[in-house]
Amino acid sequence: MSKIKFFIYLLVMVNTMSICAQTSIGGTIKDSNNNPIEGAAIVLNTPSNLYSTTDINGNFSILNVPTGDYKLTVSHLGYKTIETPIKVDSNNKTFSYTLQTDLLNLHTVVVTGTFNPRPQLESNTSISTLNKKDIQQVYPQGTANLLQNIPGTFADASAGEVFTRVYTRGVSAAAEDDMGWYYVSLQEDGLPVSLVQHSYYGSDLFHRTDLTTSKVEALRGGSASITAMNAPGGVYNFISRNSTENLNGEIQLQSGIQGEGNPLYRVDGVLGGALGNNWFFNAGGHYRLDEGARNTDFTFSKGGQFKFNVIKENSNGYFKLYGKYLNDYTNRYTGLPATNWNDPKPAFGLDFNSSVLMMPEFHANIPDGRNLDNTISFDPSQGVDAKDLAFGFDIFQDLGNNWSFKNNMKFSSKSANWQTSISNAFVSISDPTVYYLVSNGNPFPVGQIVFRDANSGNELARIDNSGIFSGDPAQYLTSGTLPNDAVMGTSTWYKDNDADEFMQQFTLRKEWENHDLNFGIASGFSDTLVYTQGSFAFSTYENNSRMLQVTLENPGEPVMALSDAYGVSNYGGLFFTNSRANVTQLATFVNDRWKLSENLQLDLGVRFETIKHKGSNDRFAPFTQTGGLDGDENTAYDNNILQPTGEQDTFNFNYNYVSYSTGINYKITDDAALFGRFSKGHKAPELNYYFNNFANVPINKKGEVQDINQVELGLKSNFKDVSFTTTLFWSELKNIGVTNFEFDDDTSNIFYTPIQFNTSRTIGLEWESVYSPLEHFAFRFNGVIQNPKATKWNIYDAAGSVDTSDDSTTDYSGNTLPFNPKLMFNVIAEYNKNKTASFIKWRYMGKREGNVANAFQLAAYSVFDAGLGYKINSHLSANILATNILNSDGLANFFGANSFGANANGATSEFIEANPDASFVVVPILPRAALLQLNYKF
């Protein structure tokens, strides 16, 4: 044989032997109940990390594995990870394992609040995880409703899916009402949902949870100061499903009944799998039609979203393209009147569980104050139409020599159009305010006022108001009356919000034997516009109000229209904001995880952040043409339209600050660790500072940066039958800017009071625990006990007028911080065996102060939820969920006295003592609801 032939023969033999030396391996992954685990990740540590995921039967396979020795890793959220050496040869190709439950996911890798992913047990932060099972146990009523299951998190979802409040550890002072996510970051896959927020524009508008969500990681305080953009209070990161080796999917059909029989219909779907050549995809979303938890004459919510990601993997990392399209209409519930300050009960014949005080559906055309040649189509049944078109790129690559980088960037175009009512105060027909608001007293209607049903045209009441200035009540002139002898003090609340945003975080990582160094940059840019217009509207003060067409019909005089045919009055005369802003956020950070010994690790991080706000507010003035916009002196409703004067007040301010955080983790055993952390963070003002506080005045001062100091000390333990984490914390918030929304009865001006800068402090203990005494039973107990204090607190008293000569401030230092319970917890009992799964949950919300004066308390309440599921076969399952089973009428919020322009801080002890029978406004929690789910997996 020649040398060439011998070489060719040898080459063929070597390749043949190489091919023959490859095999395929497979096996099954089950839990301790011998049930297959779907979606478990199996990784074989080859140079290119061969891997697979289990199918619906728990089976996996990996093709073309060269024979040899490997380390096999099996992991799944909610179970302890297995790492074991294996030998692959022709006689050893099947590997089956049983995963033990990780009761609190302490061995699960977390990516939130850290620059280098690590098991939760090894982190030095207070972090919790909700997996897919946890998410499926919650009735779908919005993001905040889901987060009520996170220990230490105060979440108020009483208004519905949007207009919610979420905060932790007493870091809450500016997170009230229309700015409810002020201190925390709501994220999707590691980047904020929205970069900016201001009144009625928050991140919850653009976020929905569905089957595309894999898990939620919740970080409370701590390292949020150095890992999140301008959000020192915490991070709530919703992580999407990612790639799977095998094609699989899920369809979920849901039908529910809420309150007094209002239906909910919803369909969710998700599909994922391989596209070949290391390409993978996942896509899904949902659509729903929801009549709402309370009785309205319109559909409360409708719409949905579509999300996707496509991943290309290589031997050194991955590239991911992802996107989302959200187009959703929803509304928010306003407060309800109550009486009896000591034990609030619904007033005026309303019911806490079913009633609403909101304008009904109607279709009006209101002049657009920006350009009076145009009109705005207004329909309060629309609520808020939120749209979000977003796409991003996430890249990770191993550069070799223990260097790697990760870059996550996202572009989005958002819009939120509000068409709803603001305020629903009781205004007596004997109160001059209701007539002044027709056109800010130009003219003031005196004499015979006629109220007609705007839909039917039928006369409801005819009154004479000419005696109200001498203290006499308005007199009915016919047998017809208005419900409760009042109209609802409300406004058509129209807001146009648009924002184009880009955000990005780049991290470069270098690992040594004892150091894990991460440094990088984060950036965000937002170009945002906001327009707000408000008109007074006449409607009855009753459940499911009716719009009122109102006229002045004095004998011998022409009829004067005080409202249009739909009941809208004082076109565009109550509110006007036309503003724009460019926001630039830049940050650079460095973090070192220093391994001091085998069991002791130190975490050191620092972040420099600069935020620039540049924009302008339009100045405005009333339209002054004789007879108003239409030139008709007998139509009073268009005499006071606010419009731009052409002048603008500009702002251009920079906020620079350094935040730092240091933590330590001591690993006692493989299943127990101690941790501690100190953090100093900051919160720059949001755009509402400029939009709300400088109406027709120069913006000559930038806002104050709030300072937050936090200390925490915790223990994490994971044993066979019990797991728990407990964290002792101290937090201090300084430079809290506080202002109140006020109404001047004499001039009909609506204004914000001068800002007062205050300080709060909270000490508390959080805990999260699971106890599983028997194989199929588990008991979960989590919550917080805390002492929130307003250590330095002043409230500005405007004495009910714009005039500052009689103004004063009141010192409430040392009082309990409002809206923060001293105790709240969740207790859950679970039973899972074979094909059956069930749970019952008790959620307890402790007493809260309704204002910083501590003059009114929101009583403690309890909510009970339950669920039962049955796995019909390997593909089909059915579940029943019920929330607020006992129909608790707990109160979540307090808005103060039931009068136009009132606020919670006005209800002082002196006010309550002087007005013991007065009504006031509270916001009840959502009523009972039940849901049937059918899930089909394939």
Features:
938 residues, mainly beta, Immunoglobulin-like, Maltoporin, Chain A, 2 domains, 22-stranded antiparallel barrel, 5-stranded mixed β-sheet, 7 helices, 5% helix, elongated, disordered N terminus
Describe the protein's architecture and organization.
With 938 residues, this protein is mainly β. The chain folds into 2 domains: 3-99, Immunoglobulins (Immunoglobulin-like); 301-930, Beta Barrel (Maltoporin, Chain A). It has a 22-stranded antiparallel β-barrel. Strands 10-15-16-13-14 form a 5-stranded mixed beta sheet. A hairpin with a 7-residue loop joins β33 and β34. The longest helix is centred in the N-terminal third of the chain and has 18 residues, at 3-20. The protein is elongated and about 110 Å long. The protein starts with a helix and ends with a strand.
Give a quick precis of the structure.
InterPro entries: Beta-barrel_TonB, Beta-barrel_TonB_sf, CarboxyPept-like_regulatory, Plug_dom, Plug_dom_sf, TonB-dep_rcpt-like. The protein is mainly beta and 938 residues long.
